[in-house]
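Problem statement: downstream parser choked on a complex file, so we are re-checking the raw output for the heme C run. The parser issue turned out to be on our end (a line-ending mismatch), but while we're here, posting the original submission so the record is complete.
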Amino acid sequence: MGILNKMQSKQKILLVGMVLIFFSACYYDKKDQVYPQVIVTTCDTTNVTYSTTVTGILNANCISCHGSSANSLGGGIVLNTYATLKPYVTNGNLVNSILQNGKVPSMPLNMPKIDDCSINKIVAWVNKGAINN
Ligand code: HEC
């Protein structure tokens, strides 16, 4: 009887241990949900270029309408070359349009703003002199 009692208490300890492990695992899972990991998104605006950064953003969001003067969707405004884009940099309307600040028609037309990082990259390129790099 004494041995059996001892074994039972060992089993009890084992059981309690397993229960603790089980609940600590649950607690850990819950903690993950309550405090979700902060996803750090960085926006690198240090090495923005016309040839890669700016054309990449414009191709993805703007050139469907502004690819050629023959494309009536773009209101005759062509933004797929440096030379044709530059006047809208100089008069501020490229930045105004993507900031959707009400100074010129908001771009992309009838759509929400492009993502903040893309806006920041274009603004950074403009602020660095909008060179044809
Ligand atoms: C669905 C077609 C469409 C898309 C996509 C589009 N545009 Fe336009 N955009 C237009 C039209 C049409 C006009 C002329 C609007 C007007 O004058 O009322 C225009 C005008 C402009 C102008 C001239 C604003 C001015 O008054 O000087 C700029 C700059 C411009 N767009 C930039 C962009 C940029 C940058 C994007 C992408 C982020 C973009 N557009 C996407 C159709 C579009």
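For whoever reads this later: The helical segments are 2-34, 50-61, 63-66, 82-90, 93-99, 116-127.
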